[in-house]
Design a protein that fits this description.
Chains A, B: One of its GO terms (biological process) is carbohydrate derivative metabolic process. Two copies of one chain form a homodimer. Chain A is α/β, with parallel strands linked by helices. The first copy, chain A, contains 13 helices and five strands. A five-stranded parallel sheet of chain A has the order 2-1-3-4-5, with helices on both faces. In chain A, helix 4 crosses helix 5, helix 7 crosses helix 12 and helix 9 packs parallel to helix 12. The structure holds a DNA duplex.
Chain lengths: 304, 304
Amino acid sequence: MAKSPKISASHEPGGLIVHISGLLPSLSPAEQRVARLVVADPADAARRTITDLATAAETSEATVIRFCRSVGMDGYPQLRIRLAAEAARRIEPPDARVVGGDIPPGADLAQIIATISFNDARAVEETAEQLDPAVCEQVVEAIVSAGRIEVYGAGASGFVASDFQQKLHRIGRIAFSFPDVHTALTSAALLGKGDVAIGISHSGTTSDVIEVLEQARSRGAVTVALTNFPRSPITERADFVLTTAARETTYRSGAMASRLAQLTVVDCLFVGVAARNRARARRALEVTAEAVRTHRVGGSRRRS
Amino acid sequence: MAKSPKISASHEPGGLIVHISGLLPSLSPAEQRVARLVVADPADAARRTITDLATAAETSEATVIRFCRSVGMDGYPQLRIRLAAEAARRIEPPDARVVGGDIPPGADLAQIIATISFNDARAVEETAEQLDPAVCEQVVEAIVSAGRIEVYGAGASGFVASDFQQKLHRIGRIAFSFPDVHTALTSAALLGKGDVAIGISHSGTTSDVIEVLEQARSRGAVTVALTNFPRSPITERADFVLTTAARETTYRSGAMASRLAQLTVVDCLFVGVAARNRARARRALEVTAEAVRTHRVGGSRRRS
DNA sequence: GCCACGGATGAAACTTACTTTCATGAGCCG
DNA sequence: CGGCTCATGAAAGTAAGTTTCATCCGTGGC
């Protein structure tokens, strides 16, 4: 097992912009200024010369080049071209939806709904676009052949972890998730070769989750990280890194788009695992559905 | 500078490629060779350097520049960027997304990802579209002025319930959610006028949730139902009904799109509530974020 | 047939853009 | 408080793009 996680350097099929904003926190301050300009208006950036862009970002050309390299480009010209292409593709934002920004103070419910759903949907789409099928495949493979699967997450990511655990469990995989660190650590210590440990953290900096993942890895389990930031600490403890692409409206507003993005990844993995053995999975799903049938009341004649 | 050819300067409506091939015959032989290369593969041309392209067209750089001017560009860099943009736009649509349907048996991960995310994103968008702002407003109002809020859900909807509870709690509302029916029933029995009870059930037929909601209502609490089916049993016990619009890929495949749709509604209500008292909500969010700060590891900066 | 003329063309000079190197200085760890 | 690492921009160096200009070739007039 390779020790360095696959950040899929050259693989950012979905969006370069998405890729860049994911990398943003791992960039140096000066590079971040450049990145922000680029993300804010890719088309405009593509039009600028390197000197021009450097000046606009209040830095030197050298830093712009470094930025190019940091996001996986060969040099500035390549970045320019990619940006132009990217910008052309995303001619979409037609209406004045508050993209990525905060909710304006005087907003009414209709505005709030439009903004939230737009950002949520976008997070889902962009996450899917930049998800690397090859890495997913390997993770699915690991899960399918795992003796035991453990999923870790804290706070909002904890619900996602539980959701994943529940899904895996429903199709007959032996999966666990934990409400607290101690239990998780204890359990992780009992993992071994062939087991799978999945850590979920939007920021990639949740020490509890990192710690548990580290523990799991030291016991020989295959480790997977699910985070929004491909260069965050958690990725160093993971054999496989899966990234989401959520730009939270406001960082502290409680996870909103981020957990939807995480759940989308969970869905993909889940279906991927289920698809490996359709018959068995289907049977399991039917059995479990049957089990709760008596907890449903009849005529839901839905004709929505 | 009077001698340059007068071609429709900067405005070539249809497409740059179309434009170029249109005036191809009016170009000099050497320029035509360049033009043909460009038209044949714009994306490739965009990647080439001027020297490279000149060589490929068996001509000199000077001619390439002349060609740029002939088609109305300022210079080679501009042409490059326009070409990249053009190329990006024209290969977009042919995307074999598996819409709405089930995942085909032989599907690979890339297909799965496309299908899932498409349906997930759609569920979010469609839910937002049909969500009634007026009803949301009333629910928000009820939550804001509630003495206590309880959220019920079973299975996958249980996670959504917990998520909502956690969010409300974070902004200082007194909210609860429950892992089992008994506790929930007990708690619901203690609700009274001015309290709010929210029941979440995708199918709208989960008897446990219905039962608890009924209990809450009988105690005078305001009841809210969140379901995908506006005519389902749960709606009969609710003062306010909020609906999601998820079409699950496969009914029994475990809730996927449905919970994303539910979470979107949760997000909207949450932001709606938070917006009612920005200052207080913001302060609460900051305090809670600070509380977990020591559980985050710092410097995510790294270079590959 | 010879000679002006003009457009097309590429070589080379030139300019600008891009890239690398290196010295500096800030922050961090022991 | 040294001795590190790392981020950064100035400046040197290289490559890309642009201009200039001499040449070439075909044309048409004499």
